[in-house]
Amino acid sequence: MTPNPYFFILIFCAVALVFPTMPLALAWLWRRFFQPPKPGAEKNATYECGVESLGEAQVQFRSQYYLYCIIFLIFDVEAVFLVPFAVAFTGLPVGAFIAILVFLLLLIEGLIWAWSKGCLDWAR
Amino acid sequence: MSEIDEDLRSELQRQGVWVTSMQDLYNWGRRNSIWPLQFGLACCAIEMIATAASRYDIARFGGEVFRPSPRQADLMIVAGTVTKKMAPQIVRLYNQMPDPKYVISMGACAISGGPFKQGYNVLKGIDRYIPVDVYIPGCPPRPEALLHAFMELQRKIDSQKLTGDTKAEHLDPSQPSEFPVPAFGEHDLEPAANPDMFHPPKIERQS
Fold first, then answer.
1. Burial group, residue B48, by CB count within 10 angstroms (0-12, 13-18, 19+)
2. Domain extent for A91
3. How many interface pairs between A and B have CB atoms less than 8 angstroms apart?
4. How far is the alpha carbon of B76 from chain A, nearest alpha carbon, in Å?
5. Does residue A25 sit within a domain?
6. How far apart are CA A94 and CA B31, in angstroms?
7. Model ipTM over 0.95
8. A55 CB near a chain B CB, below 8 Å?
9. How much is the CA Rg of chain A, to the nearest whole Å?
10. pLDDT digits over A71-85, tens only?
């Protein structure tokens, strides 16, 4: 008689259930009969760096940081474009030079605009 | 839990039968898997690192798993000078370790303040706040000394009782698991030592 092919899945499920629950049950029994639990304020504290935590965990972050980050990214990418420009500077035709100058001026204009809008003020 | 007669045990072992008690099994497991807290304070920490590295290889004794979290550590090796600024953090970390927990006071500084004993900001021994199991003298102690302390600790763990009046402290509900954390006072840590625990011997000076 061959067993149902799904019978092995049943065995697998039983083992999968017993395997993790057995250590937990043993730990519970050990606690019950030998080692009394000794909880405390320090032991149950959330942080484990040795320094007492200050204030609340649910603090609000300013969205200003997001704007700052975006502006930083733009100018960071600008630096990436400036590097090949600087490397090829001596061999550039006038047209290319003016093109990169326009590109720079556009970005500077953007910086002035962001500045005048107050995006660079950290705390408003 | 009853103790096995040693003669009977060795006789059985000769016949290929290995018997043990729950206490022996428990202590065997604990003593061969001591996880120290990854925590160094000063130059002694360098020796501790050397002990953990391949030349001295604390893994031979089952102590190579240095845990960065007190929640997973069994052993705190106070390796180095304890400043008064650092002492509350050490006591807090010790409090956060789960029982059973042990402390090795490594080097002259951790024992008594060592060469900096007269310093205004140096704690004169970590045993003022937490119970210490093994003291290692030296400045700094060599890795062999730390290994020796580790083996002494293993010997201590091996001798701890599971039941009875002399059972281990972590199994006794009346024994504390946490110790008061000192606070920064105006001039010194307050209290300067845990009065319930720190009883230094009285020195009789002869004039």
1. buried
2. 63-116
3. 44
4. 13
5. yes
6. 78
7. no
8. no
9. 32
10. 899 889 988 988 998
Judged by CB atoms closer than 8 Å, whether chains meet at B92 and A52 is answered as yes
Chain B nearest-CA residue for A46: B96
* Tokens 């019950």 -> residue: A32
Q: What is the residue-wise DSSP string for B67-81?
A: BSSGGG-SEEEEES-
Alpha helices in B39-96, H assignment, sequence order? 43-52, 87-96
Asked if B201 is an interface residue toward chain A (Cβ–Cβ < 8 A), one would say no
Mean residue pLDDT of chain B comes to: 90
Tracing tokens 């484990």 back to the chain, one arrives at A48
User: What is the per-residue pLDDT for B1?
Assistant: 43
A 17-36 residues with CB < 8 A to B: 34-36
- Per the CB < 8 A criterion, the answer to whether B169 and B163 are in contact is no
One-letter amino acid at B172 equals: D
**What letter represents residue B88's amino acid?**
P
- Count of structural domains within chain A: 2
Residue B132 CB partners (closer than 8 Å, separation 6+): B78, B103, B104, B105, B126
Count of CB atoms situated within 10 Å of the CB of B185? 11
- B93-106 per-position pLDDT tens digit: 999 999 889 999 99
B96–A contact, CB cutoff 8 A:
yes
User: Would you say residue A105 lies in a domain?
Assistant: yes
CA distance A41 to chain B (A): 9
In a domain, A88, yes or no: yes
A13, containing H or E segment: helix A7-33
Give the closest-approach CA distance of B177 to chain A in angstroms: 6
Q: Hey, is the C-beta of A42 within 8 angstroms of any chain B C-beta?
A: yes
**Contacting residues of A for B71, CB less than 8 Å apart:** 48
Helices (H), strands (E): how many in chain A? 3, 0
**Is residue A54 in some structural domain?**
no
